[in-house]
Each structure stands twice: as structure tokens, then as C-alpha cells.
Amino acid sequence: MALSRLIARPLLATYFVANGANDITHAPQLAQQAAPVMEKLAPMMDNATPDAVTIPKDPVTWVRVAGALQVAAGLSLAVGRMPRLSAAVLGATLIPSTAARYRFWEATDKEQRAEQLNHFVKNAALGGGLLIAALDTAGKPGLAWRAAHATHDAKREAALMGAKVKAKVA
């Protein structure tokens, strides 16, 4: 593993482990911020899941679930276990979290607006880091590349087999 990955992944993960732990312990207070976002997301998620799956409507539950996901995925990213999946999960939790907490466009006080914007931009930068981590194949070919080359190799093998069969028949 490259030294940059060995250092960068745990550094990136630290924010999410700490933030997730904070979310779990302070869920009731944070749920007030999450409520407007959850009111919009819950119906969409309810429609996207089978009827047998119950989507919780309580913002406190959602804050705790998101916090637990951030802790688990953050630890996984930090130790290098399933780093691409972990980064993708963290990115998925970052979007609603940022939309709930840092709505700078609603702030009326100039200082509060600047602080909210600063945190919003910080989270956008973290999202960029997570995107890089989620797409990082560590120098190995990605799934799309492997699938395309497997198809190409299979066609080439089939053509060679066909040529051998024709040669034996002739």
C-alpha cells in the first residue's frame, strides 16, 4: 500500500468517527436540525423501498443511524477495510448531514452566515476527498476496465477457437 494511502485514509476518517460519535451522543439536539431534511427524504426513501421495509420517520433515529454509519465506515476506512465502500457510505451520509446542519442560505446574521458557509464548504471539500477515496483502485484495474477487457479477451479466444476448428475441418 502506498504511504499516501496509509496516512490519508485515517486522516480523512478521523472527522467522521468523531462526528458520528457526536451525532450518536447528541441526537435529540441535532434532530431539530435534521427534521426539515428528513421530512423531504423519508417519503422518497419510503417509495424507493419494498412495502415490507419500514422507514423510520423519527429524526432522532435518523441522526443516530447516520452517526453509527459514520463511526463504522470511518473506522473501516481508517484501517483500510473495504475503503472504497466505506468512502462511498461516508459520502452518502455527508450529503443529508450537510444539508441539515449548514443551511447558510437561511442565516440572517452575517457572522452566522459566514460560519455556516465555512462549514458547508469544508464538508464539500471532505466530499471531494471521499469521492477520490471511493474511486481509488489502488493502482489495480477497476471493475469496468476488467469487464471490458474480459469481453475483448473472450471474443479473441472465440475467434482463435473458430480458426482452429476451421483448420481441422479443412
Automatic annotation (TrEMBL):
Pfam families: DoxX (PF07681). Residues 1-20 form the signal peptide. InterPro entries: DoxX. It is found in: Membrane. Keywords: Membrane, Signal, Transmembrane, Transmembrane helix. Coiled coil: none annotated. The keyword Transmembrane applies. It is a multi-pass membrane protein. Its main location: membrane. This is DoxX family protein. It comes from Nocardioides vastitatis. The lineage of its organism: Bacteria, Bacillati, Actinomycetota, Actinomycetes, Propionibacteriales.
